[in-house]
Design goal:
The protein has helices at residues 2-28, 150-153, 302-313, and strands at 50-54, 76-84, 89-99, 115-122, 135-142, 158-162, 179-186, 192-197, 217-224, 229-234, 237-238, 259-263, 286-296. By secondary structure, the chain is an alpha+beta fold. It has a single domain, classed as Jelly Rolls (Sandwich), CATH 2.60.120. The N and C termini lie far apart (50 Å). Residues 1-28 have low confidence and may be disordered.
């Protein structure tokens, strides 16, 4: 009887192990899951146009170049760590910022003539007043600022942020998140052309009301130089109130280079930008979660942006 019981236990154990292995294998490989919008995972979307990618899966290194943040206080400032993210782990900034060395693929004047930046972000309206309520999330900032250009280029060639003081926790609408994208074109004569877009939830009528503060949201900025449209997307919906940026000839982005990728703030002295401004009270070091940041050298289609959102929701 004892031998029969041992045999039965062994059989049940084997069945359980095989079942667990089958379940693990079925869920561990995106290729074995049903495609979403025709893709197995986010890395398949516009793969040939992807020029920089930060996964933040337990590492701060940019995936395609392998480059890590600069050493010392100029590279890592404040409190920087990792937390559970939308796709794997995420960057956790608590009054923190990261500055990277130049990444070749996004470090020439014409590298991002048309561009899309896609990222997952979780940020609260955690500033008490508009005077200190601007949270910079990601940007490409010129290294060689001069005192004359610092005021313009502190915004970055590309900058993505949130107006986290508009609807602070004490406000009647504390859940409204105002995402903002900006970029600065360096003209041939050295002058600049700045463009931006954001929702206008206080407008009449309101435009782009996005009640997602404190939640993981998919934030995308897309510049199409031919149509001169600068879109801001929140969870795959266009939420910008100022999408059309004039008319006329194509307006490709020409960047001021060399430039450094930065998370959590801009081209400030504290991050090693010698001619940049001091850290501004209205734009403190970021307190936010940031995940799966992708920089493309093309204006992605609406369908591709939707696919990135749906795949991210599925953790892929």
């Amino acid at each position: 009887m004892k031998n029969k019981m041992k045999f039965l236990f062994a059989c049940l154990t084997a069945i359980a192990v095989v079942g667990l292995m089958f379940t693990f294998n079925a869920c561990s490989d995106d290729d074995e899951l049903p495609p979403i919008d025709g893709y197995n995972n986010s890395n398949e979307v516009a793969a040939t146009n992807l020029k920089a990618h930060w996964t933040f899966d337990g590492t701060n290194a940019e995936r395609l170049s392998g480059l890590s943040p600069l050493a010392g206080a100029a590279g890592t400032f404040g409190t920087v760590g990792f937390e559970e993210g939308q796709i794997g782990q995420a960057l956790k900034l608590t009054g923190g910022a990261l500055r990277y060395p130049n990444i070749a693929a996004v470090n020439t004047a014409d590298a991002l003539a048309n561009y899309t930046v896609s990222m997952w972000v979780k940020v609260k309206n955690n500033r008490g007043t508009a005077a200190e309520g601007y949270t910079q999330l990601f940007g490409l900032f010129p290294d060689g600022l001069t005192p004359e250009t610092a005021g313009d280029f502190m915004w970055g060639n590309i900058n993505m942020a949130a107006e986290t003081g508009w609807f602070a926790a004490t406000n009647a609408q504390p859940d409204t998140l105002v995402l903002k994208g900006q970029f600065v074109i360096k003209n041939a004569d050295g002058s600049i052309n700045g463009q931006d877009n954001r929702p206008d939830p206080r407008g009449n009528p309101p435009v782009g009301v996005f009640k997602k503060t404190g939640e993981w949201v998919h934030f995308v900025a897309r510049w199409n130089s031919t149509t001169r449209q600068f879109h801001i997307f929140g969870n795959a919906s266009s939420i910008g109130a100022y999408t059309q940026r004039g008319t006329g000839d194509a307006l490709p982005l020409r960047m001021n280079v060399p430039c450094s990728p930065v998370f959590g703030n801009g081209a400030v002295k504290e991050l090693g930008f010698a001619n940049g401004p001091d850290l501004q009270t209205w734009s403190p070091l970021a307190t936010a979660y940031i995940d799966d940041v992708r920089v493309f050298n093309t204006a992605l289609s609406d369908a591709e942006i939707t696919a990135l959102f749906n795949l991210g929701v599925a953790g892929r």
